Amino acid sequence: MINHKTNKTRKTIILILKIIWTIALIYGEWYEFYNSVNKCEWPSIPPLESDLDENRVRFNVLIIADPQLPSIKYSYPKRSLLLRYISLQVIYQFIRKSWRFVIHNTKPDAIVFLGDLLDGGVATTNEKEYEGLVNRFRSTFPIPNTINQTNRVIYLAGNHDLGLKPSINLIDSNLAKQRFIKNWSNNDKLSGLIEWGNHTIIWIDSIGLIEQEKEEEKVVESFIKDLNGPEMLLPKVLFSHIPLWRPEETNCGIERESKRVIKQGKGINYQNEIPEKVTKLVLEKIEPTIIFSGDDHDYCDIIHTLPSKSYANPTLSIHEISVKSFSMGMGILNPGYQLLTLSNPTRYSKLPEEQTTFESSCLLPNQIKIYTKLYLPLFIISLIIIILPSFIEKKSVKKLRQKQARTNGLPIHRKNLSRNKFNFKNKNVLTDSSSENENKSDEETLTNKLISQHSRRSDSMSINLEQLDELNSPTLSYHSPIDSGHEDDSHPSYTRRLTSKRPALPSKHSNNHNRSNGLLSSIFGRRRVNKWTNKSSRSFTSYRILKELWSLSSLIFLIYGIIWFWFWW
């Protein structure tokens, strides 16, 4: 009965753990993302006095920076193959899940990717391998059918897509550019412009802009200098992968995670800023209303100032925002994205004081925190709940067996029993022959009683130790003739035993088990059989723990798998 209650209690505990894990997984893998994305809305637009309609025309642009989709061959080379594979799958799932929530919640009119699309884009020289990476990117970032990919999606090139000379040779650089234009560009160029929502959208090849500083042919600079058409009369939005130059120690704002600022620096295949001279050319020639850049992976919000051609505003302030990486594998706790709303109801009559661009920065959940602050503590608590009771029960059984082994398998009642049957000498010793004969007959009768009782007790002691719970009754005891003396009808305990309740008899299963143990004992010896019995008991405890762990873990993997396939469907 006790074992049945224990098993029922453990099943209830496992059921409660399963419910808790189900809630935790739904919260960590679905609700956290839903809540984070749902809290970030498109920026509100204040009404203008010149508006004839209260509802201003809006054109919404979703900006994604540095997804840098990893690959098993080129990402995290210092990690083991298994750890690398697990890391990649977790990152893929995070990006895909985040993208699905973002694209369904925002429903943008256009999308801009700020470069570094693939982690191994420049390192991959095999065409089929590169096509596989491109297909992986497109399956991770599926574009809705409501968005025309020809003129509503822009892909900028980053240093992980093209490389940066001299870290990469000329042949590989040209190959990387050709592949990028073939798979991502809509105008067969790495720079371009388009009109969205009465705004001119300009994107520049910042990699080429840095490389061409030391070259005679300056393709990107020529593109910038040739921007003289009527579209330049509209408010302009500039997109660049690498941030523009800024003075040393320029503060990036309170939304930045890292304490370090963006400052000029370069290394193998990267450079932190566009050079100062080229930055001045870009700002003076384009005069953008706002600039969005990537590459740094963290948020940064600064203001560029330069002289203005307008007498009303002698100083032109240009806002630049470095957008957070969309991936959890880029060294930041909370990845993010940017929402940009363009609102210019009149085409060419924009007043200088009117604002037509509105932006808001959005954060994604901290996946590492979900793992370490939610799943890991819950996992440790689950292990303790499953393993600790079995360990305590095992210790208790061990102590009970040791105690029973010291008492020959049955509890000894420490009572001061009468030894009158063993004291054959009386104070008044009879000397006649009839008394001696009577004493001898009494001794013989007593000896026969002792022999018969001893044989019955020996049979009872052959019962296996596993039945001790049934036989452990205060009315059943074994009294050693040496320790306690012999009990007869005259002893008070004899009458109490007769009137007390008899212990339950062993079940049929127990009898069969005893017979099998007796047969094994006769072949291998009782000590060895008892040792095997203890091992089987320990094995059963381990089996029960493994069974409960498997039951719980299988549910966890099932729920996680359902969530996984839901976001990849």
Automatic annotation (TrEMBL):
Membrane-spanning residues: 12-31, 374-392, 549-568
Alphabetical GO biological process terms: GPI anchor biosynthetic process
Signal peptide segment: none
Domain Calcineurin-like phosphoesterase: 61-299
GO molecular function: hydrolase activity
SUPFAM superfamilies in UniProt: Metallo-dependent phosphatases (SSF56300)
Source superkingdom: Eukaryota
Location within or outside the cell: Membrane
Region described as Disordered: 426-459, 479-519
Topology within the bilayer: Multi-pass membrane protein
Pfam family of the protein (one): Metallophos
InterPro entries hit by this protein: Calcineurin-like_PHP, Metallo-depent_PP-like, PGAP5/Cdc1/Ted1
Any one GO CC term of the record: membrane
Name used for this protein in its record: Calcineurin-like phosphoesterase domain-containing protein
Record organism: Cronartium quercuum f. sp. fusiforme G11
Lineage, broadest ranks: Eukaryota, Fungi, Dikarya, Basidiomycota, Pucciniomycotina
